Amino acid sequence: MNLTLRVWRQAGPDAPGRFETYRATDVSPDSSFLEMLDAVNEELIGDNEEPIEFMHDCREGICGTCGMMINGQAHGPRAETATCQLHMRSFSDGDEIVLEPWRAAGFPIVKDLVVDRAAFDRIIEAGGYITVDTGSAPDANLIPIEKDAADLAMDAAACIGCGACVAACPNGAAQLFTSAKMQQLNLLPQGQPERYQRAESMVEVMEEHFGSCTNMGECEAACPKGISIDFIAMMNKDYRKAKFKNRRTA
Amino acid sequence: MATSTSQPASTKRTPFLVELYRSALGKKYVMAITGIVGLGYVFAHMVGNLKLYQSPEDFNRYAEFLRELLYPIAPQSAVLNILRLVLILALVGHVVAAYQLTIMNRRARPESYRGKRDYVVADFAARTMRWTGVIVLLFLVYHLADLTWGWANPAAAGATPYEKVIASFSVPAVAAFYLVANLALGVHLYHGFWSLFQSMGWTNRRFNAWRRSLAIAFTVVVVGGNLSFPIAVQVGLIS
Amino acid sequence: MTVLDAKVPSGPIETKWEHHKFDMKLVAPNNKRKFEIIVVGTGLAGASAAATLGELGYRVKAFTYHDSARRAHSISAQGGINAAKDYHGEGDSIYRLFYDTVKGGDYRSREANVYRLAEVSNHIIDQCVAQGVPFAREYGGLLDNRSFGGAQVRRTFYARGQTGQQLLLGAYQALARQVKAGTVELHTNAEMLELVVADGRAVGIITRDLITGRIERHSAHAVVLGTGGYANVFYLSTMAMTSNATAAWRAHRKGAFFANPCYTQIHPTAIPSSDEFQSKLTLMSESLRNDGRIWVPKDPDESRPVAQIPEEDRDYYLERKYPSYGNLAPRDISSRAAKVSVDRGQGVGPLKNGVYLDFADAIARLGRDAVAAKYGNLFDMYASITGEDAYQIPMRIYPAPHYTMGGLWVDYHLQTTIPGLFSIGEANYSDHGANRLGASALMQGLADGYFVLPYTIGDYLAPMLGQPKVDTSAGEFDAAEAEVRGRVEHYLGVQGTRSVDWFHRELGKIMWDYCGMGRNKAGLEKALSEIPALRAEFESDVRVLGGAESLNSSLEKVGRVADFFELGELMCRDALVREESCGGHFREEHQTEDGEALRDDENFAHVTAWEWSGASGAPTEHREQLEFETLELTTRSYK
Predict the structure, then answer these.
(1) How far off is chain A from C161, nearest CA to CA, in Å?
(2) What pLDDT shows up at residue C56?
(3) Residue-range domains of chain A with CATH
């Protein structure tokens, strides 16, 4: 199939950007979206033009590196699919595809379709962990954990940190990421001692970088791992309690 | 941004509610709680107004009854005024928090997407909360001027509440405005009702699926009732 | 040729590590902050090491070329992590895990290291659970296990099909805690391009910031490389696109010996490639072999739809050849068996380049829901890649380069031949011998990072108390930085006609054809003449556009591919001198009558460690003799 691509090109963080039009010819429906871009880049290099920079690494939907707006949707048209797992059979011959980087104040553009998601790391550093020094852990089966709780924690833990939730959110909010990372730990017995410290710190760092939630659900729809916005509700509750409890114990 | 454990314990702390309100999540709580007040109010308002269908006397007596709530324990109109104060505070809180959150969200996405967005689940209601909110707010001012204060009401001075309603709704433009505004209210209620569960952190996998249906049912009842009044007047069902 | 001393402590294998921990010199807690340690790579090994060293009080600088420490390729590991917990009372033990791992590695690993690995495996599970890693659980709330290739007990802990992700996130979160605490200084988007050696010791590294292009110097008392494996030398592999050997290779060029480069693992259950433009191969977790049955049609000209091929016309070749392990035969054996079938023309799929992995029996036995609960995400992944529904028709799989057992030679302390340079995880050669068992990579990465290196590094540092680290203005740093700048300028200046990827693909084809699942003398010699020729073309005809002062992925790749050329050559050379078949190294000249690997313990029970001797000279071969004090060398049989 043959496609027309309109790709956002931007030389650097402060450079002006613009859409450039490229053609992708003889694309196999079995090739992945990123392989299609590889082929476009090969042609660009052949024409002595700088290739399009885009984020990618594992290409199996788990590292969370890839991501771009494809026709106005984070990670493109297929539900629960990261950009690297999107295949060209989701498109038809003659389609025009518009590619844009994630846009959010918390994700400044680095170049072309590449953004800087370091703000996510700041949120984790604020409390997205359980304090346990290496070697100090008791036997793993000492505390039985209800299977449902473990499964729910795993649902949250599936987050790959790609940033699609922020990109898709009309408010540029990071509630889905933050709540998933927080609730994974808050749902488990191991996470209880720091539960409310964690809730307070993570939310407050999140709000330094990102917008607020208006419960539209675009994040859940864009999430390549289908993470539920139920976790956002849980986070809201934990935060309110945290505000109260942390004062009492401070 | 340090966790509170690493902060030196300050001797004087800002009040809990103020501290909570400083965060966006706190503001969302204000949105939700004031929203609940508003939901209660619109529901009661609609139910009360159903008296229009009983008789003018019933309706007027209901209006008078509101002033005599808890009378003579409390002075005349006292409870009504307290309720009004609560409503005003809720409204101000709702609007101010909404404004502040909107500013925050604009800052969070200073540059919008250049290509067309293709929303997956964010429905019309969710995306237009700001605008339906503004419409409802403007309508509210007119509605008060029309039926509470009477400035904008076509009926003669000294008219009964019932006469004011009939006079107002008999004007097709006014009736149309009421219809539009109530549709906007419906859209706003629908998303607001569903949304407050999220903001309040009321989540339970067993009833989560019902939240949407509940929001629709509530909206249909309230807005359906409200819409029926100007229509009933226009088609001559009540006069 | 010299004989290398691995400095394995004496004494019975069960107590070596315990006694040695006591014998090693310690750095007192209040002195630890006087030492700076560089950790390169933030995968399972690097992140766990950096976090633990930070917890202990060392000042750590951690480096990753990813935009976040959470993105290392460890994250892609699906199946699980082994430990000798014996939670099911099946008679598992540290000794059995040790035995299985040595046997699985075809008796080409160092006993003492493997025993230590088995010993600390249980601590890893404890540690990870305490960190909040959501391992699968049974209804009683206790940890669940699955079985994996090469083992007859259930000892693999897993978190759905995302075990590597969950373990890495656990380590990453531990690292984030240390970053917050200020003990670890984390440098993201920073790629190590040179090792700095002064007075024979590793004293620092040169990095390039991938966003700004800035070249930086970092010095420390010791350098730890946890930079992963080199399977991307094949171009098509299950590795992430940016996985590369540059850090390890630069260390090799500075004097670290490279051990057993020819030991590469070809994983049996990847999705076959669909066309020649494919950029990578996707792995389907080996855990699928628990319930899937592998077969090919008996008749190479079979043309019936798969569902209509009757049982008697199917060859369940693993079950036939290896009845006791069946579909759970170790990876090298399963891969080679698949290759044999495909080479015979029995391959399936449009390109006849795969074998079936069939779940029909499992679905009939357990029900579709139970199968979906276990493997649902893998089936979804398969569907999204191939467009086929594996609940209806069998999956197609084929082996793909996946892991490299070879790596920087390290002693019992995980120290390379350069004092002060340590290597952990997949980057080192240590515990897997000639073949790694499933669910052992995660175990080794975390064992090295959490429980081994943080102790052994103290033994190196303790005598250095009071010595300042080498200043970054030293001449050695000048020289190393000049080398880095020289390479960057060289490749930007070639202005040739072909892209970096083109050369990488060509190199990959040579490697796959001659140094892949089957190797022989003629092929390896051919590769050894073709690689330098392609390399020469690469040096004069590669095209790298753009500049050095901003994000430039072609520039990043060109240096990595240049190093793959040299490494690829060394792999072929190593494969050529190893005149035996063992594990992942199958020399066609050395096989039994029924096509099994034929080891030569008399002549090859050693590690081959290569010393760099300049770009033009042939590398020098050194050996570490493998002493089997505890286990008896036997023919590895899974029949």
Answers:
(1) 10
(2) 98
(3) 3-110 (3.10.20.30), 117-249 (1.10.1060.10)
Q: Using the beta-carbon criterion (under 8 Å), do A173 and B105 form an inter-chain contact?
A: yes
Percent of chain B with pLDDT over 70: 95
* B189 contacts on A by Cβ (under 8 Å): none
Q: What is the pLDDT of residues C210-259, one digit of tens each?
A: 999 999 999 999 999 999 999 999 999 999 999 999 999 999 999 999 99
Question: What's the whole-model pTM score?
Answer: 0.95
What Å distances lie between residue C602 and C78, C188, C580, C605, C633, CA to CA?
37, 47, 10, 7, 10
Please determine, for residue B2, whether its predicted confidence score (pLDDT) is greater than 70.
no
Q: Which amino acid is at C35?
A: F
**With 80 as the cut, is the pLDDT of residue A248 above it?**
no
Q: Which of C141, C275, C279 sits opposite A28 (nearest CB)?
A: C275
Instruction: Judge contact between C464 and C199, C-beta under 8 A.
Output: no
Catalytic residues of C: 331
Q: Do C132 and A130 touch (CB under 8 A)?
A: yes
Q: Domains in chain B, please, with CATH?
A: 16-113+123-234 (1.20.1300.10)
Provide CB contacts within 8 A for C167, sequence distance 6+: C44, C74, C77, C81, C128, C133, C159, C442, C446
CB-based burial of residue B128 (10 Å sphere; 0-12 exposed, 13-18 middle, 19+ buried)?
Answer: middle
> What would the two tokens of residue A28 be?
């196999």
Q: Does C169 touch chain A (CB under 8 A)?
A: yes
Structure-derived torsion over alpha carbons of residues C486, C491, C494, C499, reported in degrees to the nearest 10: 180
Structural domains in chain C, CATH included, are: 267-401 (3.90.700.10), 477-602 (1.20.58.100)
Task: Select the residue from C384, C396, C543 to test the A interface by mutation, using most A Cβ atoms within 10 A.
Answer: C384
Nearest CB to A63: which of C75, C380, C501?
A: C75
Contacts of C130 in chain A (CB under 8 A): 130, 132, 136-138, 140, 190
The pLDDT value recorded for residue C634 is 86
Contacts of C211 in chain A (CB under 8 A): 110, 116
Beta strands in C48-132 (DSSP E): 59-63, 81-82
> Hey, what are C105's tokens?
């590695």
Q: Which of A104, A221, A222 has the CB atom closest to B109's CB atom?
A: A104
Largest CA-CA distance found in chain C, in angstroms, rounded: 76
Q: Which of A20, A153, A30, A240 is nearest to B201 (CA)?
A: A240
Q: For testing the chain B interface, which of A215, A223, A240 should be mutated: the one with the most B CBs within 10 Å?
A: A215
Q: Testing the interface with B: which of A213, A214, A228, A237 to mutate, by most B Cβ within 10 A? A: A214
How confident is the prediction for chain C on average, in pLDDT? 95
Quote the ipTM score: 0.97
Least confident of B168-182, C20-34, C271-285, C416-430: C271-285
Taking residues C295-315, report their average pLDDT.
94
pLDDT at residue C71 greater than cutoff 80: yes
Instruction: Read off the pLDDT of residues C136-172 as tens digits, 9 standing for 90 and up.
Output: 999 999 999 988 877 889 999 999 889 999 999 999 9
